[in-house]
């Protein structure tokens, strides 16, 4: 029986089911022939010539084709690698706009390289279809039951960076068949932990469909972190418990809805700077075969090779309008159709490059800023790439927050006695030197001490050298972290003195992170003392080395309770999460400034104090009376004021409290050296002395 084929429409791109049939549209500016390939359950392939072109979009409508239909494309055109064209119809390619992709690349079943072995100039004739997962037509409908993006204010946001699989793979209380999946993250047990902890947003490591690199497959490893995207519209099928024929989309949406019901926002870590296809010698999976010269940034004087600002072999080309549209369409799809609350852009500087340099006025920023949807979601940049001039911390425009690498480095240095207190004070108070001049707020600084890339917090205080042997690269991958702090003993130990020092330093990092101005980001498992046994580049470790361990010993339970205590303190007191930068000045009629830094003797820090290389102890007065808030009945509430005493020095330091104009009496709130001490103990008068142990932090609350 001959299939009915209609011309269809150029937009929207990708497959669109209307209840009667499906419209398919594929962008390729340089192709000469396109075939849509339909597959049945027995993998029998039916090829349909796509003859209609509109604005370089190849389109066709097929009546009777609907959800669950498996498909791919074969695209023909010039085979001229030296000119940047790599068309090969023998290679089945994934639709860049596919909303569901069945599964992994089966590199062992067919050649995915478009060129012949030993001769990259010769086009390979072997069919790659046995190796390539099928795209799937889906039904986009979903009962959201009134769900909307939460739009939580930045000043109230606490981010928790997690891996969808690793977070629940070993979690008790999650059904075994749901562990490591979107449904697992939506489970009561997972959500209960997030709510009890006190975080307000989860930042998910990449969930766009992932393709493992063939070299990892050969080693028996996978790209666990997922920074190897091949489908910018498709939730990764490997994280679905319910199925991979479109069910993964419904499960992903259900996860978002469940988290929203718990008051938790969903932020996606997105990788639009490169794809899984690697360098010019890498496989042909999608973009390379659809239109290599359009989708990728090629060397102007040698288009055989890619410009590589990412260290992965290629860079996507957002300068091309159709590629920029792909990125924007992907973002809008997840924001509108999937209700995602925000995005963290991996190696965002690569997207901001116009011709070569990073450009704050690039088309990428312009399009996002004028978009009525994307300009209203949370936008977070990883403000660097590996190209020249790629380190751009503080240089992204208004509307953007940034992972603040300077905060991370400074806080680590301070607690190991390696940085001036002036730099520490700038980072603790929101990095106004980076974000204030262009009209941004403290929330623009996403503060973190650890993230997925590097040591966990437990390993940061336990190792001073990387131990990446499990990656099978001879421990050459990753970088030695010269800002770790291990008390002079490498690795795990049974020494109770060393372990107490390590736990104290862990509490110091957590307290400095969660009480600082800006937006804190906590790495999943740090509150549980999760270890990767010294591996600081566990990108390929999909196993217990990376998964969160929920079997907690007494030390882990202590760190967990201390983290909850810090997050409650932050949530209850706006003084720790101000919407505006601190000025150091008193409001009219007020007796004290909004912040006042002082030496251990209780006197104000002087210029010479700020520049001393041996000063590692100082106090901060935080004036809660400067930021009155309204209760539910509209009555003003004046927040309490606090003093934070920092002692990064190895020996105890005795502080003198400030004079009475800052407060007449002070009560203990918490101490990293004595975490068991409850709040609201005996009060101390102004000018009283307060001992602070070596490598410790103490918080006092004003009571009069």
Can you offer a commentary on this structure?
This protein is α+β, with helices and mostly antiparallel strands and 704 residues long. Among the domains are: 14-136, Immunoglobulin-like, CATH 2.60.40.10; 582-702, Immunoglobulin-like (Sandwich), CATH 2.60.40. Helices cover 21% and strands 21% of the residues. An eight-stranded parallel beta barrel has the order 13-14-17-20-21-22-23-24. A six-stranded antiparallel sheet has the order 25-26-29-34-31-32, covered by helices on one side. β3 and β4 (45-50) form a beta hairpin. The protein is elongated.
What Rg, in angstroms, do the CA atoms define? Answer: 27 Å
Overall SS class: alpha+beta
The main sheet orders its strands as 13-14-17-20-21-22-23-24
Describe the biggest sheet?
8 strands, parallel, barrel
Q: Helicity, in percent?
A: 10-25%
Total helices: the number is: 16
| CATH homologous superfamily assignment of the domain at 14-136 | Immunoglobulins
Strand content: 15-25%
The 3D shape can be described as elongated
For this structure, the CATH topology of the domain at 14-136 is: Immunoglobulin-like
Low-confidence stretches: none
Distance linking N and C termini: 88 Å
CATH architecture tag of the domain at 14-136: Sandwich
Number of strands: 34
């Amino acid at each position: 029986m001959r299939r009915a084929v209609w011309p269809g429409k150029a937009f929207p791109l990708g497959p669109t089911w209307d209840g009667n049939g499906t419209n398919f549209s594929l962008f390729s500016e340089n192709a000469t022939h396109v075939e849509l390939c339909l597959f049945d359950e027995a993998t029998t392939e039916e090829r349909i010539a796509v003859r209609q072109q509109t604005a370089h979009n190849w389109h066709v409508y097929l009546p009777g084709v609907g959800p669950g239909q498996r498909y791919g494309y074969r695209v023909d055109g010039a085979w001229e690698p030296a000119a940047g064209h790599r068309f090969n119809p023998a290679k089945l390619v994934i639709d860049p706009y596919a909303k569901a992709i069945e599964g992994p690349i089966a590199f062992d079943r067919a050649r995915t390289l478009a060129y012949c072995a030993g001769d990259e100039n010769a086009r390979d004739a072997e069919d790659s279809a046995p190796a390539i997962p099928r795209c799937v037509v889906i039904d986009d409908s979903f009962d959201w039951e009134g769900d909307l993006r939460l739009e939580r204010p930045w000043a109230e946001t606490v981010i928790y960076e997690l891996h969808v699989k690793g977070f629940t793979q070993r979690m008790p209380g999650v059904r075994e068949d749901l562990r490591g999946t979107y449904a697992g993250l939506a489970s009561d047990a997972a959500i209960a932990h997030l709510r009890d902890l006190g975080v307000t947003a989860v930042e998910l490591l990449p969930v766009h469909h992932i393709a493992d690199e063939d070299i990892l497959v050969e080693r028996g490893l996978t790209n666990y972190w997922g920074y190897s995207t091949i489908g910018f519209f498709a939730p990764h099928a490997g994280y679905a418990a319910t199925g991979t024929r479109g069910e993964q989309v419904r499960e992903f949406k259900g996860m978002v809805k469940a988290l929203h019901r718990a008051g938790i926002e969903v932020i996606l870590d997105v990788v639009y700077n490169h794809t899984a296809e690697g360098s010019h010698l890498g496989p042909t999976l999608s973009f390379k075969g659809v239109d290599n010269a359009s989708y990728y940034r090629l060397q102007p004087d040698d288009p055989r090779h890619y410009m590589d600002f990412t260290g992965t072999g290629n860079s996507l080309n957002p300068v091309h309008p159709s590629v920029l549209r792909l990125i924007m369409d992907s973002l809008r799809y997840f924001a509108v159709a999937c209700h995602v609350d925000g995005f963290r852009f991996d190696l965002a500087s690569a997207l901001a490059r116009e011709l070569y340099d990073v450009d704050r006025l690039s088309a990428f920023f312009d399009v996002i800023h004028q978009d009525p949807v994307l300009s209203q979601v949370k936008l977070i940049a990883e403000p660097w790439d590996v190209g020249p001039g790629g380190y751009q911390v503080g240089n992204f425009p208004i509307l953007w927050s940034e992972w603040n690498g300077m905060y991370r480095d400074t806080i680590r240095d301070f607690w190991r006695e390696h940085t001036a207190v002036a730099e520490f004070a700038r980072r603790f108070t929101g990095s106004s030197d980076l974000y204030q001049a262009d009209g941004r707020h403290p929330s623009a600084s996403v503060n973190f001490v650890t993230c997925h890339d590097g040591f966990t917090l437990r390993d940061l205080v336990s190792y001073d050298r990387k131990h990446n042997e499990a990656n099978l690269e001879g421990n050459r991958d990753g970088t030695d972290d010269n800002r770790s702090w291990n008390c002079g003993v490498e690795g795990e130990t049974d020494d109770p003195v060393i372990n107490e020092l390590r736990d104290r330093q862990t509490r110091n990092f957590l307290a400095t992170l969660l009480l600082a101005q800006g937006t804190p980001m906590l790495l999943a498992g740090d509150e549980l003392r999760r270890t990767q046994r010294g591996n600081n580049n566990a990108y390929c470790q999909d196993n217990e080395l990376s998964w969160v361990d929920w079997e907690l010993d007494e030390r882990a339970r202590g760190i967990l309770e201390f983290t909850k205590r810090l997050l409650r303190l932050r949530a209850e007191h706006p003084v720790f999460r101000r919407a505006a930068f601190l000025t150091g000045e008193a409001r009219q009629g007020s007796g004290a400034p909004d912040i006042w830094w002082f030496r251990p003797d209780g006197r104000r820090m002087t210029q010479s104090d700020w520049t001393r290389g041996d000063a590692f102890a100082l106090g901060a007065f935080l004036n809660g009376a400067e930021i009155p808030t309204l209760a539910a009945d509209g009555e003003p509430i004046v927040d309490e004021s606090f003093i934070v005493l920092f002692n990064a020095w190895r020996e105890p330091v005795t502080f003198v409290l400030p004079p009475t104009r800052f407060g007449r009496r002070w009560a203990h709130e918490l101490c990293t050296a004595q975490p068991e001490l409850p709040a609201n103990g005996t009060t101390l008068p102004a000018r009283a002395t307060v001992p602070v142990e070596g490598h410790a932090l103490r918080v006092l609350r004003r009571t009069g």
